[in-house]
Amino acid sequence: MDMNLKLEYIILIILALMFYFYSLKDDLENKKNKKFVRRNLKVGSKIITESKIIGEVIEFNKTDCLIISGSEEKNSYLLIETDSIEKILEI
What we know:
By secondary structure, the chain is α+β, with helices and mostly antiparallel strands. The chain contains 1 helix and 5 strands, in the order H-E-E-E-E-E. It has one helix spanning about 5-40; strands at about 45-50, 55-60, 65-70, 75-80, 85-90. A 5-stranded antiparallel sheet has the order 4-3-2-1-5, covered by helices on one side. This is Preprotein translocase, YajC subunit.
């Protein structure tokens, strides 16, 4: 084998490993965030969903969450899955 060909294989392997670790890191952060949301979610929490809807939790259980969103004159009640909550703004 030519030295350049070996170097190309080494570079490809390094790039593949870097891609794997960066994607694994994002997955671990998402799992950690979901665990934080499950532990700290309560009635009155202001949240952002994965579809970027901002609302306030009215009721929740392990699988579903009822939120209210919108202005004071025009409220919308949405039933979402608890797993679709991206972030808690205010606890």
